[in-house]
Specification:
Elements lengths: L1 E7 L5 E7 L19 H26 L1 H37 L10 H14 L3 E5 L10 E4 L5 E7 L6 E2 L1 H10 L8 E6 L2 E2 L3 H9 L1 E4 L1 H10 L9
Parallel strand pairs: 5-7, 6-8, 7-9
Antiparallel strand pairs: 1-2, 3-4, 4-5
């Protein structure tokens, strides 16, 4: 509805003008202010802080008035926490033991992905006395899937090749790893590990000449079962 507003001009004449009040846009809801106004967030913080202070005061009063029950409650709480920690530790140890037992059979690697095979071999290195074992496989690893420190102190750089029963690791993979293991990754003990086998030929001979250790399924099976690094690692 229009409304009338009058005002006086500079020459003294009084005039009346008609105005229309603005209406909110269709579908728009008028802004509501919270109970605490624009500081509703601060209000909740203050309320929670006050509740915390009250709780602390009540606890202190209870301890002062009932020292015996307070001490007994504390002892019970500590005992329950210790039991829970012990149960958790046993569960973790049991799972690790079960995982280690499964890892002893090289056949489990046949159903793994490449990343799972890297993790499996990393666990084998740790069980064999290697330190600072780290899985590095992924984009940009430049051939270093796992790195570690051997029991004799050498830096080990490992490339893992999970193969299907019908595929073999060829000489091209060996040559590529030979060009990066020492120069790029600073490897002192360079290994290519596979759950399959290597193609006989120039690649195997090149590995021998460059001191690259080739661990095939037969060697890996014994290593996984005994948890003892094979003699071919040298050192």
């Amino acid at each position: 509805m229009p409304h009338v507003r009058s005002h006086v001009r500079r020459n003294g004449a009084r005039v009346r003008a008609h105005y229309r009040r603005r209406r909110p846009a269709r579908g728009a809801r008028p802004a509501r202010r919270g109970r605490w106004g624009s500081h509703s967030g601060n209000g909740w913080v203050l309320a929670l802080g006050g509740a915390a202070v009250v709780a602390v005061v009540l606890i202190v009063e209870f301890v002062e008035q009932h020292p015996y029950w307070s001490a007994l409650s504390a002892v019970v709480a500590v005992g329950v926490a210790a039991v829970l920690v012990s149960v958790r530790a046993r569960q973790v140890a049991r799972r690790r033991a079960q995982q280690a037992e499964r890892d002893r059979a090289v056949a489990v690697t046949d159903a793994m992905t490449g990343a799972e095979f890297e993790q499996w071999f990393a666990r084998l290195l740790e069980a064999s006395g290697f330190r600072h074992v780290r899985v590095r496989g992924g984009a940009g690893d430049r051939g270093a899937d796992v790195t570690a420190i051997a029991p004799d102190g050498r830096r080990a750089v490992v490339q893992c090749k999970r193969q299907s029963p019908t595929n073999r690791v060829g000489s091209a993979a060996i040559q590529r790893f030979a060009g990066t293991c020492r120069q790029v990754h600073g490897g002192e003990l360079c290994m290519i590990v596979t759950n399959g086998f290597f193609t006989a030929g120039d690649g195997v001979r090149l590995a021998r000449q460059l001191g690259i250790v080739l661990v095939d399924r037969r060697v890996l099976e014994t290593w996984a079962w005994t948890r003892t690094p094979p003699p071919i690692l040298g050192g």
